[in-house]
Recover the amino acids of this structure.
């Protein structure tokens, strides 16, 4: 690690701590040449291999963009989306691989999105899994219902949007 002040090629670690979410390590360093102290943050890199074969760093913001489109018009908050993106990243990192395929990222999104909002899940799944018929939608809905029946839980009813007059639309 180069000193950011004098560009000396060595530094001494004075203190190491993990960040609050445990995803990175904060190191306090001191340069033996100029004596100044500085902080570094170390994270494990995670690379996504796209269908085209290109590699790029994993990005929570890309997960958010895709999921936000599926959640458009749904009662889902930005905090809900941020938590979902964090869960997706944690799920991928738990696989213990430094490189994952884009397909794996999509699969990691489906579970948390299903728990968050079933309609948004169907929207995302229909694009991600390339639904091309009503039967594809019916099959996905059947699986959603079967999952509900297996757990014995119904999703909480969400409030319908209100018009300015306070009446439900339509």
């Amino acid at each position: 690690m180069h000193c950011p002040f004098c560009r000396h090629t060595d530094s001494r670690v004075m203190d190491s701590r993990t960040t609050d979410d445990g995803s990175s390590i904060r190191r306090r360093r001191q340069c033996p040449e100029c004596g100044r102290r500085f902080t570094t943050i170390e994270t494990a890199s995670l690379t996504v291999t796209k269908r085209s074969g290109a590699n790029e760093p994993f990005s929570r913001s890309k997960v958010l963009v895709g999921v936000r489109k599926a959640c458009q018009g749904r009662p889902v908050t930005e905090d809900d989306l941020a938590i979902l993106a964090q869960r997706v990243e944690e799920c991928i990192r738990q696989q213990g691989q430094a490189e994952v395929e884009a397909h794996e990222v999509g699969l990691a999104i489906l579970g948390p999105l299903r728990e968050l909002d079933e309609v948004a899940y169907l929207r995302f799944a229909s694009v991600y899994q390339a639904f091309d018929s009503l039967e594809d939608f019916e099959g996905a809905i059947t699986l959603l219902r079967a999952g509900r029946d297996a757990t014995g839980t119904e999703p909480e009813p969400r409030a319908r949007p209100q018009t300015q007059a306070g009446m439900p639309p339509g």
User: Anything to note?
Assistant: The chain has a mean pLDDT of 86.
